[in-house]
Amino acid sequence: MDRELILQLGMFFLIVNGLGLLVGYHLIQEDLQTTIINDDPEDPINSLGLIGYMLVGTAFILIAIKFFPDKILYWVLKGIEAMALVTTAFITFWGLIAYLPIVEKDMVQAIAIILAVGLIMIRIILPQYLIWRNISSIIATVGVGSLLGASIGVLPVIIFLILLAVYDYIAVYKTKHMVTMAKAVAKKNLSFTFAMPTPKHQFELGTGDLVMPLVFGVSVLNDSITRGLSGIPAVVPSIIILLAAFAGLAFTLDYGSKHVGKALPALPLQVALMVLTYGIISVSGVFQ
What we know:
With 288 residues, the chain is mainly alpha-helical. The chain has one domain (3-284). Helices cover 74% and strands 3% of the residues. It has ten helices and two strands. It has helices at 3-29, 45-67, 70-97, 108-125, 130-151, 154-174, 177-187, 208-226, 232-257, 267-284, and strands at residues 193-197, 202-206. It has a two-stranded antiparallel ribbon. A hairpin with a 4-residue loop joins strand 1 (193-197) and strand 2.
């Protein structure tokens, strides 16, 4: 096992999901959701909507990679990064600053906007630094994962994750277009992956591999709160599911570190372990 690689993975996973649960809890308390297809978070059609949005976005990026000159492609992808960051960073900063008692409530959103814009400016001015790329990836992942988790019910999330795991397998092993995208994004040093350098190789982990567990974790947290749980009993099921996701991701990444150059889909094992863990928790009735 590549100890350094797993330690980096553990650090990213802990930071993203720790902050994500905090932000997600705040969004749940504020009853802040985003509409995917309709306003019913329990409607499975929202699962198909998420898949549809993702496929459209993927198709656009693939077309840009194939037909745009390199310099134009860079700024197109930078534009996408900036648009994604401005929203997700605002959500993350807003959700976290709200916990600070020293900040006046009516100032929280203004400070969150300033920090989000500042982060984008740093990414434009200092695009070459991996630390700022990783910080941006963390903040973006926390924002999108917590918002989606607070906006969609557990069953639609499970359906979405299963469909996404199948897609991930096909995109990596069959069509291989996910590999093409990953290489193009990594070369541009954009906030769509986490950079994990080791003495042997710099590994790139897609933000989706941390977003999806967070979406499931926050959705389960929302369900626990809706059923009347509070405090530790409300958050424990989410933590157990996230630990299962980490185990799947760590196994996949460790296997990849021993087969450098071989692309691996991380979601299938993650999703299998998360859904299995959720099923065991639900059947046990411990957190009812």
